[in-house]
Design goal:
heterodimer; A: about 250 residues; alpha/beta; 9 helices; 9 strands; B: about 220 residues; alpha+beta; Nonspecific Lipid-transfer Protein, Chain A; 2 domains; 5 strands; about 15% strand
């Protein structure tokens, strides 16, 4: 009898082929209130983390940008404005519910013309080689089943000299902050999830998946192993979140 | 290095403040719109900090984006202390060279921004009217303008009125004419003392020469 390969889903071990479906269920469940919850959970600070991501992207008019796991389109909206009518932004998400919310929100804000929405798996990006000047993945990589495969897929579709930016929860720099953050994540977060979105389980998964995600140095190493060069990271809010950058040689 | 979260917060706050103010001055906003695509880099030496202002055109006029870094071309780059920048913006006659601010790139953008900033005329009644209604906002605006005008006049005449009260009413200082006559007398006396000092110096030199001549004669006799 052959053993089934497993991976983590929060603190649980699940068969590899089940993880994507389970993650999809979580995001189907939270899609409608995703933005409200993001603001509530981070006290609005997620906007500043995303602002710094835009700064480091060095996006310019006329460029082509891929926003993976773009969710409700925060980064896409800003990129759309920067690249202008001569550029293009692709909002990609594996989850149809999140993509639908994102597309509707962008249209409601009058953002159209240079934006495409694509339902895509980060591990198998459906784009030709050397397509994008910049790729961002904000709070999405930890939900991907095979992160190495996804990083290699991103490398393939980036143009030489193009940059990948991974914005993701990470490991707090100080022990004290880590303790406070743990209390917040495992006690307050599921409670808020229950109160606002009537879904404590999804927000418990969120906290668990953050703890299972590689720390700053490990992710940097994974990016180098995938073939990126000049890899670096910037800790934000004491390391609760880190922004990793890598360049395609 | 400072946590990027704080810097992003500072930039976001500054950007919101600038663009909120511009929204209530369509004239300045339209002028800025003509500068779309240009970038002003500001390198503060004290405190040490760099920021880049990118001028975008939203269709209804200019929009300022504040960035902590800029990888593209910078139209004009200024370097100097925060104090020098404040004076550069406030003082109509101030020039970067006088204040020790170095300029790299086009000075035309700086001149246009200085001119726009000095002519900034924000209609504060507009946002207030959204909160309390048109009529109360107008009444409030008229009141504030009257108070500002009175304050400006009062501050303009205050030094003269205070001087009159101090000298004429309270007799704490002499009247200006009396003081000026006294000052002239002091100056005349001072010149007299200078002349006397010069005359004494001449007499001293003459006396010293005579003493030297008189003391030289016995020496010759000894030889």
């Amino acid at each position: 009898m052959t053993e089934r390969k497993t991976t983590h889903f929060g603190y649980q071990q699940v068969p590899v082929e089940e993880k994507a479906g389970r993650v999809a269920d979580v995001f189907h469940s939270v899609a409608a209130r995703y933005d409200v919850m993001n603001d509530l959970m981070s006290g609005g600070v997620h906007r500043l983390w995303k602002r710094f991501t835009i700064e480091l992207s060095a996006a310019r008019p006329g460029q082509t940008i891929l926003d993976i796991a773009g969710g409700t389109g925060d980064l896409t909206a800003r990129f759309s404005r920067i690249v202008g009518p001569t550029g293009k932004v692709v909002l990609a998400d594996i989850n149809a519910s999140m993509l639908k919310v994102g597309r509707d929100r962008l249209l409601d804000r009058g953002i159209a013309g240079n934006v495409e929405t694509v339902q895509a798996d980060a591990q198998y990006l459906p784009f030709p080689d050397n397509t994008f000047d910049c790729i961002t993945i904000a709070f999405g990589l930890r939900n991907v089943t095979d992160k190495d495969l996804a990083l290699r897929s991103m490398l393939r579709v980036l143009k030489p000299g193009g940059r990948l930016l991974v914005l993701e929860f990470s490991k707090p720099e100080s022990k004290l902050l880590e303790k406070v953050y743990d209390q917040y994540s495992f006690r307050l977060l599921p409670f808020m999830g229950k109160l606002v979105a009537d879904d404590a389980d999804s927000y418990r998964y969120l906290a668990e998946s953050i703890r299972m995600h590689p720390d700053q140095e490990t992710l940097k190493g994974m990016m180098s192993d995938a073939g990126f060069v000049d890899c670096e990271f910037h800790n934000m809010t004491g390391g609760i979140v880190a922004l990793h950058k890598g360049i395609k040689p | 290095m400072t946590d990027p979260t704080f810097r992003a917060g500072f930039d976001a706050t500054l950007e919101t403040a600038i663009n909120t103010a511009l929204r209530y001055d369509p004239g300045s906003r339209a002028r800025l719109g003509k500068l779309a695509g240009k970038v002003l880099g500001v390198n503060l030496t004290a405190p040490a900090m760099s920021l880049f202002l990118f001028i975008d055109d939203e269709g209804e006029g200019g929009y300022i984006e504040v960035h902590s870094r800029w990888d593209g071309e910078v139209t004009t780059e200024l370097s100097g202390s925060a104090l020098a920048f404040i004076q550069l913006l406030r003082n109509r006659d101030a020039t970067p060279a006088k204040l020790g601010v170095t300029v790299r790139g086009s000075s035309a953008l700086l001149a246009e921004l200085q001119s726009t900033l000095r002519e900034l005329d924000i209609d504060w009644e507009e946002p207030v009217s959204k909160l309390i209604g048109d009529s109360p906002a107008h009444q409030l605006g008229t009141g504030v303008r009257m108070a500002a005008s009175w304050l400006k006049d009062a501050l303009g005449t205050a030094p003269k009125a205070t001087a009159e009260a101090v000298s004429e009413e309270w007799r704490m200082t002499p009247p200006q004419a009396q003081f000026e006559a006294f000052a002239e007398d002091v100056a005349e006396f001072s010149h007299g003392v200078d002349r006397l000092e010069a005359r004494l110096a001449i007499l001293q030199r003459k006396f010293a020469a005579q003493v030297k001549a008189a003391s030289g004669k016995p020496g010759q006799e000894k030889r």
